[in-house]
Amino acid sequence: MPIIKRIAVFASGNGSNAENLIKYFNDHRETAEVALVVCNRPDALAPRRAEALGVASVVMSRDQLNDPETINGVLTAHGIDFIVLAGFLLKVPEFLVDRYRGRIVNIHPALLPKFGGKGMYGRHVHEAVVAAGERETGITIHHVSEGYDEGRVIFQAAVAVSADDTPADVERKVRDLEIRHLPWVIGSVIANSDGE
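The chain above was modelled as a monomer; its predicted structure follows.
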């Protein structure tokens, strides 16, 4: 019988990806469960979405997230094996990348290496895609490394961008890809990471 891996989802905002992951793994408990949502903004919806689904949440300041004793203590207390960054806007400290190397994954709302790096998140990405006249965009799910959006790519999915698409149109298309693909990709990564 496989060991059920315990996931922490790090989120900074709405928490729709966190909710999607919680619901998916509630129906696919053979490999993993979302055990904790970590958020850096007290006004974000992510913690409330988690708690409504019976998942623990914690709001932590940037200083707390960058303090090894504090964040490692929280993750250890919840038995966390794997981290998913889902709309998390802070840079993950190197000590956490080291601790969870190969077991910390991010979803980026563009086809990396395009439109990645510091400051490229959420609406900023979609505005840049439209401004550049791109004819496709998508999502990239990748391992987290020490640099912004530089980790090894696990999965990409693309969607067409029309000449008259607004950033809001692009955001909706990318959101659909996130909802469709993030949960099963995370499940696959965890299922294939035995013993890591």
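The helical segments are 16-27, 46-52, 62-65, 68-77, 94-99, 122-131, 167-191.
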